[in-house]
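Submission checklist for the structure archive. All mandatory fields must be present; incomplete records are returned to the submitter.

[x] Identifier: Sulfotransferase family protein
[x] Organism: Marinilabilia rubra
[x] Residue count: 216
[x] Sequence attached
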Amino acid sequence: MFGTKRNKIFCISMQRSGTTSVGEFFRHFKYNVAGYDISLKNKWTKSWLDGNYKQIFKSKDFLKNQVFEDDPWWCPEFYKVLYHEFKNAKFILLTRPPEDWFKSMINHSGGKTLGNTEIHCKIYRREKDFVNIAQKFDRHDTTYNDNLLDLKQNKELYLEHYTRHNHEVISFFEQHDSSKLFYGDLYDKDIWQKMGAYFSIDVPKQFNIHANKSNK
């Protein structure tokens, strides 16, 4: 088991569900937070894709940070690995109405797959779509497969995935240890105060944060 002196906190909300805001919340209260930029630098999501979890857990940025938001933490069923690997870890799941979530996905990248298409297709089970388009590109070009496929024509697939992820996370912690999961509604006006109470952080009543806001 890869342990540290401080208990880890993992945001396992799906992308476009307040992950960046969670990071900003903890930064405001002086926690060490690893967000998208650190994950990208360390290629953590590629390590997740390869099943090389040890590469993630032994990296310096993983060891020195306490809070983790964005990918790969919300990638399919990775929370199960984290739960068993870090016995004292806490987890955060924020949700929003599925239709709103999908609109935010569409707005983020002009209706195209968000970021690396190969990884995106693995997460959302569109591997066949990726195979059909990947042959047109040079696999040695690390940026060749960004934002390649449309989302709109696969709306039901995305809504199903989003709903299933949230349901499975809640069910998993109910079966194992519900005290380790903070679960809340992203649109709850008191969400940050409730999160603060869960983590024993004194959050002012007027405190609010909304990072990476997209147009509805």
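[x] Structure attached
Curator remark: Residues 1-5 have pLDDT under 50 and may be disordered. Residues 38 and 61 are 7 Å apart (CA to CA).
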